[in-house]
Amino acid sequence: MTEFEETFRRAVTAVLAETAAIRHEWTAAPLSLRIHPSSESGFDVKLVCESYGIYPYAGGWHGAPWDDGVWSAEALTAQLQEFLRSVLSPAGELEVRYANRSPYRWILRYSFQRNRVADEAGLLLFNWFGKRTRQTFRNEWLPRIR
Fold first, then answer.
1. pLDDT category of residue 144 using cuts at 50, 70 and 90
2. 42: pLDDT strictly greater than 60
3. Whole-number Å distance between alpha carbons of 30 and 86
């Protein structure tokens, strides 16, 4: 296990230890963590740690990787913990937009470097003329953070 992967495991384990109720599973190759939704109104969270970066996922959303060449071990630990605490509490939310009941855009709102951000991921091709609806999902594994 690389130092980067070890930093990832330590940072994530510290957040998981805050409550024993969080349902999660680890995968060895590549090292990844999947956290199940807290309820039907929640969303799953997955972090995949490659030797060169960490890729975040939430429901159908995916974000840019956190590159090991950019983050020091201390900064990466702080950011991973802030991200996880945010998306595992009601402060983080995943908005899914639908066209004719098919998802086409995912917007994750969470805390990043002490700022609230909204990151989007979506499909280029979808039913443009379909009936538009949206649904918001929140986890309640941890108490609300500020």
1. low
2. yes
3. 24
| Alpha carbon separation from 83 to 98, 115, 127 (Å, rounded) | 26, 11, 32
pLDDT at 146 over 60: no
Which pTM value belongs to this model?
0.91
What kind and span of H or E run contains 73?
A: helix 73-87
- Rounded to whole angstroms, the Cα distance separating 116 from 111 reads 5
Nearest C-alpha neighbor of 105 from the set 61, 51, 56, 72: 61
Q: What is the C-alpha end-to-end distance of the chain, expressed in Å?
A: 34
Element (H or E) spanning 82, and its range? helix 73-87
Distance CA 142, CA 64 (A): 24
Q: Which of 62, 27, 28, 26 is nearest to 43 (CA)?
A: 62
Q: For residue range 68-117, list pLDDT tens digits in order.
A: 888 888 999 999 999 999 999 999 999 999 999 999 999 999 998 889 99
Q: Which of 42, 17, 44 is nearest to 32 (CA)?
A: 44
CA angle 5, 7, 9 (to 5 degrees): 70
